[in-house]
Amino acid sequence: MESTLFTDLISDNSAIQSWNPWHGCFRYSEGCANCFIFSMDSVYGRDTHRVSLNKSFDLPLKRTKNGEYRIKYGTMVYTCFSSDFLLKEADIWRDKAWEIMRIRKDLHFVFFTKRIHRLEQVLPNDWRNGYDNVIIGCSVENQKRADERLPFLLSLPIKHRWIICAPLLEEIHIESYLNGVELVSVGGESGYKSRICRYEWILSLRDQAQKAGISFHFHQTGARFQKEGRLYQIPKKLQTAQAKKANIDL
After folding, report:
1. Would 231 be classed as within a structural domain?
2. CA gap 240, 191 in Å, rounded
3. How confident is the model over 134-162, as pLDDT tens digits?
4. Is residue 250 part of a domain?
5. Which residues contact 125 (CB under 8 A, 6 or more apart)?
6. Per-residue exposure over 96-110, b if at least 16 CB sit within 10 Å of its own CB, e if not
7. Which residues, including other chains, have CB under 8 Å from residue 124's CB and lie 6 or more apart?
8. Is residue 184 within 8 Å of residue 204, measured between CB atoms?
9. Range of the domain at 204
10. For residue 76, what are the β-bridge partners?
11. Residue 218 covered by a domain
């Protein structure tokens, strides 16, 4: 299997950091029904539909007292996981976020989006064929959304493309969309109202990635995971560990 940015980062044991420049979102498709952002906000009495800038907006540029960046060289920065980076309501802030990514060329920024169709409208002027340090993951939850979104992912100028099948709600086939993709990452749905994720769906996607010669990552089981006809109720704190225990990553 060819080396990809994902496999290189994993083998290098790169540090991981989260950066949420803004907060808030709107349910967009079937996969959003039990969104964790809405669940967390309900606990704290926060209105998820109110999209607002976070105090940590400039986190990647923060420095320590000795002048060094707080986020160290080579860190993988998971970006905008309390919203969607391509959310229309965040258009007024995104140029500055792109600028921060451009300044910190030494970091690997990763964001996932269900709104991939908006990317072309909001790219920075110097994007050209993509920033080397930006990874864009397109989230799909079923066949309908895969067929709708993945053609955009493939047609746009992106240096590093990932497909995120999560929350996986049915068996899906993405064989025709894997050319130029570096990683397929798959996971079930978390939360009290989570829908079932079946192990055979996971294995099907693994086989598709293997045939295409690209990386595959089973990142979490979800809360209701069915394997060989048996339904398992898996606590959130164990979902990643149980996925790793399956030992099916490529």
Report:
1. yes
2. 14
3. 999 999 999 999 999 999 999 999 999 99
4. no
5. none
6. ebbebbeebeebbbb
7. 95, 98, 99, 102
8. no
9. 5-245
10. 16, 108
11. yes
In a domain, 206, yes or no: yes
Residue 12: pLDDT band with limits 50, 70, 90: low
- Ranges of H-type helices in the chain: 5-11, 36-44, 91-103, 143-155, 199-212, 236-245
Distance between CA atoms of residues 57 and 62, nearest Å? 10
Contact 23, 82 (CB under 8 A): yes
Q: Report the alpha-carbon distance of residue 168 to residue 165 in Å, rounded.
A: 6
Amino acid identity of residue 219, one-letter, is: H
Residues recorded for the chain: 250
For residue 76, give Cα distances in angstroms to 68, 95, 181, 234: 17, 20, 18, 27
**Residues forming beta bridges with residue 137, ordered by sequence position:** 112, 162
Prediction pTM value? 0.93
Burial (CB count within 10 angstroms: exposed 0-12, middle 13-18, buried 19+), residue 4: middle
Q: Helix (H, G, I), strand (E, B), or coil: what is residue 119?
A: helix
The pLDDT value given to residue 171 = 98
DSSP 200: H
Amino acid (one-letter) located at 222:
G
